[in-house]
């Protein structure tokens, strides 16, 4: 018997299930993807996340964590049911709620009449979705079934998901049923962070506002990077300089080629959609997304400039995943950058420590997949760094230089020390970094309007 059901055994579902079972609960995961469930039952984790497969297997061996495709095996016995299904973007930019609706229907049909069930929306759902889930449950459940809906958005990051879930900054619980919200809070009683109790729509909005704010920080610093490049300043020091102000904070100020992943782009778009259908004009959100799109375009233009025209040139691309420590390529900058390089006539060789298999399914066949970072650099006219994997930082650059046709690096993540790399004889271009150490002196006197007064 399990006291918790997790509906949707993807990223969030598996991390939630594994952590809640580690905290002493009996957990069962349900997913409509039978292949995924078969893998999990065979001890294979369908996603790449440091530490997750070990935790899942440990909890499965202890009999605390099981997986099934059958709702009827899981829901009736569970006091808590977490909805963790995907909410991808729909063609109009809003969230596609089909998976949530289907899950709610199945949960409703299987609700126990013996005890109250608390249905927890952990997926990221637009404000108002809690009411929708409640309405579906009412439609589908037997009249005697008692239930409550609680919004409990998740703030974990891929690549550090277990750490984030075990050490949250806060827990947000939104419900009109205070007792139900407190029961969910008791699941997290071992955490020391603040727990915020709100109404459902506020909880749902907190998740979107948090992602929008973080995305805004990234677009902001990328805009500052453009200005830094134009005037010969160094955005890395600008980030440090502003981040030391506690009101600003040091996080999410790394300039680069913009944000990707399964959350920021889709959630910012979904919030923009919610705003637009609610008679609001989301100026900042629109700008955040536009700057992000532009960061990718500008990166390709930079590579083009560095090699003096991409046609017929070979570009070695390091990194496909949307960030380090994941195999996830959803909305990854690489998926825009590589097709654009190809369309400008370049040959593209790629390497990523974890995301090759996922990318192979999506990228054009013309892309050459290499077995390591050195192979991707071989005979390349330029190396484009797209993901900030740790292993790229510690690579033997002297060996890389010997393998390349011309020693040029365009670093979309500012992973290298420009002076060090230039000292090795590379032409090195980063994001928001002066082109050579004396650049600022060269620029300032030439400014048409004096910058000092
Ligand atoms: N990935 C993250 O880092 C992250 C972090 C916080 C919040 N979120 C949000 O959490 C939600 C889930 O994201 P994810 O990345 O885990 O998605 P995912 O695509 O990795 O997993 C979703 C899972 O749900 C399953 N599913 C779909 N419909 C189902 C149904 N009717 N019944 C049972 N299973 C069903 C799918 O087969 C899949 O295994 C999204 O709303 C996302 O925005 C994601
Ligand atoms: O200073 C920074 C920080 C991040 N990024 C990029 O931003 C994207 C997102 O990074 P990150 O936030 O670390 O990854 P996610 O796993 O997408 O996590 C975000 O999205 C999740 C899903 O909603 C939320 O739960 C998390 O709190 C939120 O950080 C990646 O492409 C990063 O390369 C930058 O360019 N500069």
Automatic annotation (TrEMBL):
- Which domain of life, per UniProt? Bacteria
Where does the chain bind substrate? 155-158, 207, 252-256, 260, 323
Question: Family per UniProt?
Answer: Belongs to the UDP-glucose/GDP-mannose dehydrogenase family.
Q: Which Pfam families match?
A: UDPG_MGDP_dh, UDPG_MGDP_dh_C, UDPG_MGDP_dh_N
Swiss-Prot/TrEMBL GO biological process terms: polysaccharide biosynthetic process; UDP-glucuronate biosynthetic process
Q: Which GO terms describe its molecular function?
A: NAD binding; UDP-glucose 6-dehydrogenase activity
Name the NCBIfam families on file: NDP-sugDHase
Record-given protein name: UDP-glucose 6-dehydrogenase
Q: Which residues bind NAD(+)?
A: 31, 36, 87, 124, 158, 266, 330
Pathway per the UniProt entry: Nucleotide-sugar biosynthesis; UDP-alpha-D-glucuronate biosynthesis; UDP-alpha-D-glucuronate from UDP-alpha-D-glucose: step 1/1
Show the PANTHER family listed in the entry.
Answer: UDP-GLUCOSE 6-DEHYDROGENASE TUAD
Q: Which EC numbers characterise this protein's activity in its record?
A: 1.1.1.22
Where is each UDP-glucose/GDP-mannose dehydrogenase C-terminal domain found?
Answer: 316-418
Record keywords: Signal included?
no
What positions does UniProt annotate as the active site of this protein?
A: 263 (nucleophile)
Give the source species. Thermobaculum terrenum (strain ATCC BAA-798 / CCMEE 7001 / YNP1)
Record's catalysed reaction(s): UDP-alpha-D-glucose + 2 NAD(+) + H2O = UDP-alpha-D-glucuronate + 2 NADH + 3 H(+)
The protein's UniProt keywords, in alphabetical order, are:
NAD, Oxidoreductase
């Amino acid at each position: 018997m399990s006291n918790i059901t997790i509906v949707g055994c993807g990223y969030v579902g598996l991390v939630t299930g594994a952590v809640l079972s580690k905290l002493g609960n009996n957990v069962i995961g349900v997913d409509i993807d039978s292949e995924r469930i078969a893998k999990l039952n065979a001890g294979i984790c369908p996603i790449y996340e440091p530490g997750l497969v070990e935790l899942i297997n440990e909890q499965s061996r202890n009999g605390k964590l099981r997986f099934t495709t059958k709702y009827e095996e899981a829901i009736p016995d569970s006091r808590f049911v977490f909805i963790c299904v995907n909410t991808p973007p729909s063609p109009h930019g809003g969230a596609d709620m089909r998976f949530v609706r289907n899950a709610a229907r199945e949960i409703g049909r299987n609700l126990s009449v013996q005890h109250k069930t608390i249905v927890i929306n952990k997926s990221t759902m637009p404000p108002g979705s809690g009411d929708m889930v409640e309405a579906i449950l009412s439609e589908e459940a037997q009249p005697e079934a008692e239930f409550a809906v609680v919004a409990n958005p998740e703030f974990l990051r891929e690549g550090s998901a277990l750490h984030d879930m075990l050490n949250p900054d806060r827990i947000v619980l939104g419900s009109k049923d205070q007792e139900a919200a407190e029961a969910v809070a008791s699941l997290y009683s071992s955490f020391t962070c603040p727990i915020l109790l709100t109404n459902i729509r506020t909880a749902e909005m907190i998740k979107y506002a948090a992602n929008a704010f973080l995305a805004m920080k990234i677009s902001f610093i990328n805009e500052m990077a453009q200005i830094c490049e134009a005037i010969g300043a160094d955005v890395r020091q600008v980030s440090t300089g502003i981040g030391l102000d506690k009101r600003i904070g040091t996080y999410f100020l790394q300039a680069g080629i913009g944000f990707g992943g399964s959350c920021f782009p889709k959630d910012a778009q979904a919030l923009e959609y919610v705003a637009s259908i609610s008679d609001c004009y989301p100026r900042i959100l629109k700008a955040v997304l536009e700057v992000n799109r532009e960061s990718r375009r500008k990166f390709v233009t930079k590579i083009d400039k560095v090699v003096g025209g991409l046609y017929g040139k070979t570009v070695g691309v390091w990194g496909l995943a949307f960030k380090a420590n994941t195999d996830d390529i959803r909305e990854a900058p690489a998926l825009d950058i590589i097709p654009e390089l190809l369309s400008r006539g370049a040959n593209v060789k790629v390497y990523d420590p974890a995301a090759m298999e996922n990318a192979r399914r999506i990228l054009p066949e013309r892309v050459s997949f290499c077995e390591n970072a050195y192979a991707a650099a071989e005979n390349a006219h330029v190396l484009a760094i797209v993901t900030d994997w740790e292993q790229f930082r510690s690579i033997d650059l002297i060996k890389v230089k010997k393998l390349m046709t011309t020693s040029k690096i365009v670093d979309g993540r500012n992973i290298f020390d420009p002076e060090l790399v230039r000292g090795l004889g590379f032409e090195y271009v980063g994001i928001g970094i002066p082109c050579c150490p004396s650049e600022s002196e060269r620029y300032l006197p030439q400014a048409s309007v004096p910058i000092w007064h």
